[in-house]
Structure formats: C-alpha cells, structure tokens
Amino acid sequence: MAFYLVTGGSGFVGTLLVSRLLDEGHDVASIDLLPTSLSHPRLRATIGDIRDRATLDAIYATGTPDAVFHCAALLAHGSISTSDMMSHNVEGTRVLAQASAAAHVRKIVYLSSNCLWGRGFDRPVDLEQPEPCEAYGVSKLEGERVLAALGDRIETVAIRCPTIIDEGRLGLLAILFEFIADGNRVWLVGKGDNRYQFIYAADLLNAMIRAAHVPGSHVFGIGSDNVPTMAETFQHVIDGTGSRSRLAAVPKAPMIAAMKIAHHLRISPLGPYHYRMIASSFVFDTSRIKQVLGWQPTLTNGEMLLKAYRYYDSNRAEIAARADVSAHRQATKMGVIRVLKYIS
C-alpha cells in the first residue's frame, strides 16, 4: 500500500479522493484550511495553509508520499478577493512545489481547470494556447507553470477538468436544483443548443489515481463523452424527477449583457466563466488521456446531474443549515437571480 498527500482534502473533490484512497487501503495525509469530515486511523488530517512551508515540512517529516494530489484552490465565489485567490492558488502551489522537491516527492497530480479558456468553441478543444478571461483561470494557469518549472526534479500531471458533478456537488448547481425542485421555469440563454462538458467525480478520481503512476509529466483534458445540448441535459433532470419545471428561452445578447451588469454590481454569483458555460460550447478532446492512461468516462452529463439533483432534493434542509464547508459543498446564494425565480 502507498502513502499519499491530498491538498484541499476537506473540499468536495478532496474528501471524495481521500475516502477512495483509504478504501483502497492506503495511508493518507491531508491539508486544508477547513477541518475534514472524515475520521480514519490511516488518515492524518492537518488544518493548515499550503503557503506555510513549516506546516508542509512537518507533514513530510512523517514520510515522503508516493504522490501528492494537489486539489487545494480558492474559488471565485462570495467575498474572496482576487489577491487572496492568486496568493493561495499561485504562491501556495509554489510553496508546495518547493517543499515537495525538498522532500524528494516523485509525482504531483494537479487539479487544473477548463477556466484556462475564456471563450467557447464549436469544435473539440485541444490543450494548446489557453486564454483565461478571469482571475481564477489565470491562477490555475500560473499554477501549472509553477509546476512545469520543476523540470526534472518532480514529474507533474495537470488534469484540466470542466465542472465536476456527483452526489453532494452544490455551489451554483444548487440554484438550478432549487428551480427544478420548486417547479419553476428553467431559463436557457438562447436556444440552449450549446454543448458544455461535465465530468463525473468518480471518473475524475479514476484518472487522478492512474495519473499518479504514469511515467513522465503530462497535461490532459478530461470530460464526459457524447455531450448533449444544455437543453437536453436539463430536460433529462426534469424528466427524471417528475418536476413541473419547463424550459424557457431568453435572447442571448440581452441576457449576457444583464449578467455582466449584475456581476459588475456584485449582485449576482455568476461571473465571466459562467457566461460561457450557460451560453456557449466547450468540449475537451479527451483522446490523449484515454490513450496515455487507458481511461474512459462512465456517465453522461444528464446521468451525473440527475444523481447530484437527487442528493440535493433528499438533503435540502440539512444543506441550507451548513456552515464552515467548502464552496462546492454548500448552496451558493442566488443574489438577484432570486428575482428571476419569483417571476418563474
């Protein structure tokens, strides 16, 4: 059995990954700004900041991990400032890289993002020429560059992933789920004919664990296969729940303009990245990760989103009372979107 370090081990993906590694019989250390919900004799959980070199050195003093899974990141949610996000996501990655190199870690698997691109595409996206449009994407791209600068000292694998979906995944998705649960109209920007790729969390974990053992350094795009339109995806969830909700379209240009104004006024949780997800297409070319890792996705967009909705519907009261959990494990506040819900 192996020993692994998971940064961001109390977050949505981090918690799932730690649980998976423990179930497989491995020893795990984790570090996060928030306490973990997990307890296990083979888990050593640290509440700490990856920018604190002394904290990382203390973890490495207990043993050198076979690999580090770097999931820690501040998201562009709520009141988080751009400077804080850049500090955690870039400087934190730099400190982690330096501590890992000093401890002779063999491999770092970095959870990157499709936020490296600020526009949609009408074709499968390869991995060349990323162009982030907002601070989170910039921070993740800089994190990749920090790790790539390690050269031959540590092998690194960056997995660029779209929105991660599974039971318990909330955040902005909880807004959609509330509309469906309450039978409100679900609004499409334009015709809803854009195709936006998701990734099932269990499929992502499979890829991350495989990446920890693949020779060499790599950059991969990951995501589901057979991506339907957003209208088809939302309709799959509505049909699967028996909701009274109906899809309704609004003209794309004025809706995007209104979203930009609301974001500028800080009365909406939707930012530049979300404009693209709602209104344009983005599907990774996943041929490279399939070839190198022998990896395959298992769930479609509709299937994984329906799983996430059913969790939300069964735990709605408990979710509303949550505090001191990561952004993806609580419902994002609607802001001005609640007005749209009232008229739906």
TrEMBL record:
Which top-rank group of organisms is this from?
Answer: Bacteria
Pfam families recorded: Epimerase (PF01370)
- Enumerate the transmembrane spans: none
Stretches assigned to the NAD-dependent epimerase/dehydratase domain: 5-214
Q: Give the SUPFAM superfamilies listed for this entry.
A: NAD(P)-binding Rossmann-fold domains
**Name the record gives this protein:** NAD-dependent epimerase/dehydratase family protein
Q: Which organism is this protein's natural source?
A: Croceibacterium xixiisoli
